[in-house]
Amino acid sequence: MDVALSRNGRIALRALFVLVVLFLYLPIAILLIFSFNNSELPAFPLSGFTLHWYHQFLTNADLKAALQTSAIIAAVSSVGAVVLGVLASVALTRRRIKGRAAVSALLLSPLVIPYVVFGISLLLLFHTIGIPRSILTVVIGHVVISLPYTILVLVPRLEQIDVSLEEAAYDLGASRLRTFRSITLPLILPAVVSAFLIAFTTSFDEYAVASFVVGTRTTFPIYLYSALRFPNQLPQVISVAVVVITLSLVVVVAAEVGRRVAEQRLGSLENAG
Amino acid sequence: MAARRERVRLDLTTPTLLGLPVAWLVVFFIVPIAIVAAYSFDVYSLFPGTHGFTLAAWREFVHSPVYLALFWKSVKMSLTVSAIIVVLAYPLAYYLALSGTKRKYVLLLVLIAPFLTSYLLRVLAWKVILGDQGVINTFLFWTGVRSPGHPISQLLYSRFAVMLVLGYIWLPFVALPIFVSLESLDRRLLEAASDLGASRLQAFRRVTLPLSLPGIMAAFLFVFIPTLGEFVTPSLVGGANGYMYGNQIVDLFGTGFPDWETGSVLAIFLFGIVTVLTVVFTRFLQPRRVAAD
Which residues of B touch A218 (CB under 8 A)? Predict the structure, then answer.
């Protein structure tokens, strides 16, 4: 007898799972359908197939500029967050730290701050020290938001690695930096890559904090937000939505599969060594 | 070897490693919040005039008929959303973790993937679906269920719309911590319960549910906190009816009639509540060794 689930229970739960997945994907499917619909209004009945909206968004200069700005901010802030995250994670897993609980609480605390509070706090800070709002101020905020996510990805991986590998390198005369470069970094590389991707997507999609500290160069989420308020821009935005959602789904799946494969291979290397 | 290990641990590079990340968070996270706190007591202000410590804005906040009522409304909305989706996500996580399905990680990814796509675009989807001229209403007109002059207009710009969209957005994420806690559950405990004569329901109530409680709590907290301070979804699909506490904060810092001092009070109050909740919950979540060993 299965101790966790009866046969009927299993069937009921599977049905519930299917229903919830339908609920989650149906709105996305509806966007997909209406992105090809030949009408100013996303409404039934469907009025014919068109690629007009896709064409229009490809030639929309404002939108392209916004996408570019967000790509720059996401790239810079995710590199920043990953660098800080690697430093912090190595310290948390490899060093004896005084007040360790307080340090890790501080490092993870941005996870639980309401973004509206963080947004106005940054706004007041930049007003106070006289930094004009720009791409840089958004980057600063996004590094703070992404940092805990990178730590959450990196720490478990660092804990998995056998410390004796690093100790061996160190005993053989490698400097600390050399040990990190030749032993630790290659072993945590898959986790570093997924930390980077998480930080990148977090930043690319972030509206709440950016809305307080953004300068004159609009980011993609801020462009979207204002477009959402004007119905005549809706069809175009829907086609953008389809492209972005599809791309991010592809990246997410690829990153997860890639990380698993890479860590399995590294795992077998470690065991062999 | 022991001596060598000691040298590794006590190496001076620890400050170099921690210095930058800690400094970043102190300067760009802790100090800004401290500035808002100072602002709320009028110890500090960006506007000219005389300023000094006063509780005036806090007093106004406590006695105002608007702010606390709005806060409770937001608490009720996010509590409802969090409770419903935790209850809904639990059986899903249970199915993935304990049914012995071989493709549990693939199915988990299917469940979570929507959470990792654009937040605003998922709100957009519901705007398209719920509007007066949206997918649901025009579908009803088209099929003749309702006449075109009479859409179901409560669908969009309502408290219902805000709660539906927030639930939709956070549901995939909630399944994750519950899944993790159920996954680490030792199945032998269930077998032992069964051998000792417990029914499945008893085993669930006495073993599985208590052991997955930390996962449930974490899931709840991770939805409740962001939805409590939410302002993006309500401003897009909420209308006047779905206006939340977070919107009030934004408006106090906004372009209309900005009142940064009152806004700071509202922000610090929310921050305080969230911090207390987090501290209490993390105490509660401290891993207690009740499992197999």
Answer: none
Q: Do A244 and B193 touch (CB under 8 A)?
A: no
The domains found in chain A, sorted by start residue, are 60-272 (1.10.3720.10)
CB contact under 8 A, A31 and B125: yes
Residues of chain B in contact with residue A154, where contact means CB-CB under 8 angstroms, are none
pLDDT band at A163 (very low <50, low <70, confident <90, very high): confident
In the stretch 29-58 of chain A, residues with CB closer than 8 A to chain B read 30-31, 34, 41-45
Contact flag A17-B168 (C-beta cutoff 8 Å): no
Q: Please write the tens of the pLDDT for every residue from B55-106.
A: 999 999 999 989 999 999 999 999 999 999 999 999 999 999 988 778 888 8
Please tell me the distance from the alpha carbon of residue B77 to that of residue B84, in angstroms, as a whole number: 11
Nearest to A207 among B28, B120, B127 (CB): B120
8 Å CB contact between A42 and B135? yes
A156 contact partners, CB below 8 Å, separation of at least 6: A191
Closest partner residue to A84 (CB to CB) among B20, B95, B123 is B20
How close is the nearest chain B Cα to the Cα of A232, in Å?
12
Q: Does A85 sit within 8 Å of B33, measured CB to CB?
A: no
- Other beta carbons within 10 Å of B213: 14
Contact A116 B249 (CB under 8 A): yes
CATH topology classification for B66-285:
MetI-like fold (1.10.3720)
Q: Which residues of A touch B146 (CB under 8 A)?
A: none
Round the average pLDDT of chain B to a whole number and report it. Answer: 87
| Secondary-structure breakdown of chain A: helix, strand, coil percentages, each rounded to the nearest 5 | 80, 0, 20
Lowest mean pLDDT segment, chosen from A195-204, B31-40, B248-257? B248-257
Segments of chain B assigned to CATH 1.10.3720.10: 66-285
Q: Which residues of B217-238 are buried (b: 16+ CB within 10 A; e: fewer)?
A: bbbbbbbbbbbbbbbbbbbbbb
The DSSP string of B73-131 is HHHHHHHHHHHHHHHHHHHHHHHHHHS--TTHHHHHHHHHGGGGS-HHHHHHHHHHHHS
A124 with B11: Cβ contact below 8 A: no
